[in-house]
Amino acid sequence: VFCKWREIATTMRHKVFDDDMEEEIDVFDLEIRQLCYECKEWGFCLRDLFGLGLGTGDYGHLTVEHTSMLLRNFRSLRDYSNQGFETSHKLQKQIYSRATNHDGSGEASSLDQILTHHYAERLLFLRLCFRNAKECARKGKKFYFRGCGWSNTISTKKWSATHKRWIDVMD
């Protein structure tokens, strides 16, 4: 099981599928499904050892259920980091924990408040990024945004007046 997971992880992190490689994605999907069956058998042993509270985890779910669809759309997952996925999950758990107020010292929050808080933070981060882009364009500096997978900074001198205006309006 572990050797196959290593092979799948290597494919997900390093392989780039071309447009004419749909069959290879199908084969990869079948390998994941076979591994899923073996993992379920292994999971029964783990459940016997650790009880019913043991889950598959987000990475296992993402890999088994969504990899083939993501590969068909993006042709590679090497530019996408598992760290980002896990960090997002950790933040969502923290927000949920704070919002539901299980310690009894305050009024419990609704799902609307949880989601509003989560997306308000995301929108504020996006606004900060637009503000940084606007400032870099104004000063003629290079701009870097870690959220989109750019490997390096890009020159703002190549941005058209329309792009600069759009960034200005978004800020």
UniProtKB/TrEMBL annotation:
Organism listed in the record: Pocillopora damicornis (Cauliflower coral)
Superkingdom classification of source: Eukaryota
Protein known as: Uncharacterized protein
